[in-house]
Write a structure and sequence with these properties.
Blueprint: H1 16-52, H2 56-69, H3 74-99, H4 103-106, H5 122-141, H6 151-170, H7 174-199, H8 203-239, H9 244-277, H10 294-299, E1 311-313, E2 319-321
Antiparallel strand pairs: 1-2
Keywords: Membrane, Transmembrane, Transmembrane helix
Subcellular location: Membrane
Biased composition (Polar residues): 314-326
Length: 333
């Protein structure tokens, strides 16, 4: 049976004139909005210039500095990253000690043998409770910390992780839950370490650690973790009967894998930029707003007329920055 394809021009109710008119209205509204915002900004600047007797250049500089005060300093970022690095290192080491003698670490099918009659040992209990408390703290602190580019991805990650841990605990699926926790803590150690060396300005060490992090991330999040999902999706139905909570649990595991794929895309973008530029620039979770360098702002001389200082040629052919107006050079005695 043949079907005829009609162009939009021949469809019933389609009017090209209305479409062009609507596009023109939207463009006019956008231009009007931008013009009003620019006029309001200019009006504010003019009023401030009259009240504080400052040039437009000085007011804009003050505004940039005021916005920068609300952003965390490098020391604050370093302390925050140090705390997370210490926790992930402790959690991974403690998880390895707890899981070393567990049979499901070496053979995932043991997660399903004997279910639901699987006892919880004291070390697994502590491993779960400490991890749950940590992710609750991250979820709560995310709203008053500086907002990152992946704010909603991280919020979804924390909520999915908490739901997974709570559901696995209530349904006695702590064996597969402990495997997921152990796999996730490994790569985060190198990510936080790379950030620390970046803040400390050890660029070569940062590049090396970030390369290790990329390899560990791909192995743990895109190879080992999908192996756990394969066991819960394919092997588990062959060993034990299914129940409604199982499908919710497995869906959350798959959603977590989708987030891993999205973050892998961001990580590979950083890797490609680092290969092109020769060093790692920024991080996956950098601030969403524009970063302002205090050192560059402080080192820039300001002219009293609000202009930008120009470089003056010296006698030997090199250039040197001009001195600011009002600062007269010292005379030779």
């Amino acid at each position: 049976m043949l079907t005829s394809k009609r162009s939009p021009d021949r469809c019933v109710g389609y009017d090209p004139a209305k479409k062009e008119k609507l596009g023109g209205v939207l463009d006019f509204w956008s231009m009007t909005r931008d013009a009003l915002l620019a006029a309001m900004l200019l009006w504010c600047i003019v009023r401030l210039m009259k009240q504080v007797d400052m040039t437009e250049r000085h007011i804009e500089y003050w505004w940039r500095r005021r916005r920068a005060q609300d952003k965390p300093t490098t020391l604050v970022k370093f302390c925050e990253t140090s705390w997370r690095c210490i926790y992930y290192t402790y959690s991974f080491i403690f998880g390895c000690i707890v899981m070393y003698d567990k049979p499901w670490l070496w053979e995932i099918k043991h997660c399903w043998y004997g279910y639901p009659h699987q006892s919880v040992t004291n070390d697994i209990w502590w491993y779960y409770m400490i991890s749950m408390a940590f992710y609750w703290s991250l979820t709560a602190s995310q709203f008053y910390d500086v907002k990152r580019k992946d704010f909603w991805q991280m919020f979804a990650h924390h909520m999915i992780t908490i739901l997974l841990m709570a559901l696995s605990w209530m349904c006695n699926l702590h064996r597969v839950g402990s495997l997921v926790l152990l796999v996730h803590d490994c790569a985060d150690i190198f990510l936080e370490s790379a950030k620390l060396t970046k803040y400390a300005q050890y660029q070569k060490v940062c590049d090396t650690i970030f390369a290790i992090f990329t390899v560990v991330w791909i192995v743990t999040r895109l190879i080992l973790y999908p192996r756990i999902i394969y066991s819960s999706s394919v092997e588990a139905p062959q060993i034990l009967p299914m129940f409604p909570a199982y499908y919710i649990f497995n869906t959350l595991l798959i959603l977590l894998l989708v987030l891993h794929i999205c973050w892998t895309y961001l990580i590979m973008q950083i890797v490609i930029k680092a290969i092109k530029s020769g060093q790692m620039e920024g991080d996956v979770r950098s601030s969403s707003s524009e970063e302002i360098s205090d050192s560059s702002e402080n080192s820039r001389p300001l002219l009293t007329n609000g202009g930008t200082p120009k470089k003056q040629p010296s006698k030997n052919g090199t250039t040197k920055p001009a001195t600011s107006v009002g600062a007269s050079p010292k005379k030779k005695q």
